[in-house]
Design goal:
Arc Repressor Mutant, subunit A; mainly alpha
């Protein structure tokens, strides 16, 4: 089993977010660790969220990295979306984008 370290720094994922298709997030986070605690992600969900947001991996790539099925990854992704109250990867990523003033 792979362990994932979540840093206190905000993830910069602006390159993955298409401003035309992503609505403004309900809430944005500057600390991933506190966001994950707040929505009560499991350890596996934290690992998958990190790969989704930090590395921009898709379900197939995550399943190969973690040696689990794509179906299992998709179930975890659905759970992550539900807990953050989002419908798409772009909406999830937008919650962690650091806005420049």
């Amino acid at each position: 089993m792979t362990e994932f370290e979540i840093s206190d720094k905000t993830w910069k994922v602006a390159a993955f977010v298409n401003a035309d298709t992503v609505k403004e997030p309900h809430q944005s986070y500057t600390d991933a660790r506190s966001a994950f605690r707040k929505v009560k992600l499991s350890k596996r969900e934290i690992g998958i969220a990190g790969l989704l947001i930090n590395e921009g991996l898709n379900a197939k790539e995550i399943s190969e990295r973690l040696f689990i099925t794509q179906g299992t990854v998709k179930l975890h992704i659905s759970s992550i979306y539900r807990k953050f109250n989002v419908n798409t990867r772009g909406e999830l990523m937008a919650m962690f984008v650091q806005k420049e003033d």
